[in-house]
Amino acid sequence: MKAQTISHKLLFTMSFLLFMIILSRPAQALYDVNNTGVSDVYGLSGSDVRPAIGSDFGTVRAIEDTNNAYALFGDGGNVEISGDFPAGGIIYAEAVNNYAYGIYGDVNNSITTGNINGNITVEAGNNYANGLYSVEGSITTGNINGIITATAAVDSAAGLLSFEGPIFTNNINGSILVTAGL
User: Which of 40, 57, 70, 101 allows an S-S link to 89, with CB 3.0 to 4.6 Å?
Assistant: First the structure.
């Protein structure tokens, strides 16, 4: 009987230690997507892109070898980020030739975010690098405390661009860095 008591205590102690090890691990990223390909690469895409962002948001990347890299793409629906985009979060899109988008709202779709505290970086080897881009909808953000960077080696770069809709932001305490024609 005494041997069973010791084994139960040992089992309990080992279970408790394992539980504590699991709790002490850093939180895993909510999204850690790295899509690469020849053309038309999407980090997260859907008819309504609504990631619920918390403090554990990681990295969304879209890297392609020719044209059209979209980190967050709303295809036929709105892009809504329901919480604040945290300081450690990264949205990255790279197009070797043309068309790199951090957050893209398709025709008649809006982009809505909380505070942008992380980094949104887009790079196009030739033309069209846009941090937040809406074809015909609005762009609405909270405070921009992070850094939005858009770089096009030849022509056409924008931090926030809406062709036919308004753009609303709260305070811009961070940076919006745009470079075209390096």
Answer: 57
Which residue type is seen at 31? Y
Q: Is 32 helix (H, G, I), strand (E, B) or coil?
A: strand
pTM of the model: 0.77
Q: Give the CA angle between residues 14, 18, 22 to the nearest 5°.
A: 170
Burial status of residue 92 (CB atoms within 10 A of its CB: 0-12, 13-18, 19 or more): buried
Q: 157 with 178: CB under 8 angstroms?
A: yes
pLDDT in tens, 63-92: 888 888 888 887 777 787 777 888 888 889
The two structure tokens encoding residue 169: 């932001």
What's the CA gap between 72 and 132, in Å, rounded?
A: 10
Could you give the CA distance from residue 140 to residue 80 in angstroms, rounded to a whole number? 10
Beta-carbon neighbour count of residue 97 at 10 Å?
19
